[in-house]
Amino acid sequence: MSGTVTVASKLPFPLRLQCQEPTTITEEIPGFGRKERTRWNPVGKVIVINGCSVDHAKPSEKILAGGAALTHGVDADFWAKWEAWALENFEPYQSGKIFAQEKPAAAVAEAKERSNEKSGFEPVDPANLPDEFKAAVEKAA
């Protein structure tokens, strides 16, 4: 795959993504001999994926759609490698909080389709408090 993709994230914070490669090292363990272990070393450049929170006190150039921040121009080969790892290891990717499309318009459309999905990082609505909060409020009153 070559080219770029547009990544959408419903997480409020930016993500710094970087691929890693395993290397096997041998460690000397005093009194017990040697032990081989795998060390993961970062390779390639760091890709920053935008988060959807916005500081309203500062101007922002973030592009938002359906509650997700869009990051255009992510290298497609990098994304394919990262996505293969994330498929088994990263819950926000597995649950659809982060996704990518080849075309920006497709990313916007998918973000709008998923606009009702919660990320788990939404602010608390004071008019609709969770039960554990209601008990604390009633106790304080």
Q: What do these coordinates show?
A:
The protein is flat. It has helices spanning 76-89, 91-94, 104-113, 131-140; strands at 4-9, 15-29, 33-49, 63-65, 68-75, 98-101. It has one domain (4-140). The model has no long low-confidence stretch (mean pLDDT 88). The protein is an alpha+beta fold and 141 residues long.
Q: Determine the structural class based on helices, strands and strand pairing.
A: alpha+beta
Query: Strand portion, in percent?
Result: 35-45%
Low-pLDDT sequence parts = none
Spatial strand arrangement across the major sheet? 4-5-1-6
Please report the total strand number as a whole number. 6
How many domains is the backbone divided into? 1
Q: Write down the overall mean pLDDT.
A: 88
User: Topology as H/E string?
Assistant: EEEEEHHEHH
Helix count, per DSSP? 4
The description of the largest β-sheet is:
4 strands, antiparallel
* Shape estimate: flat
- Rounded to an integer, what's the Rg over CA atoms? 21 Å
How far apart the termini lie comes to 60 Å
The residue fraction in helices comes out at: 25-40%
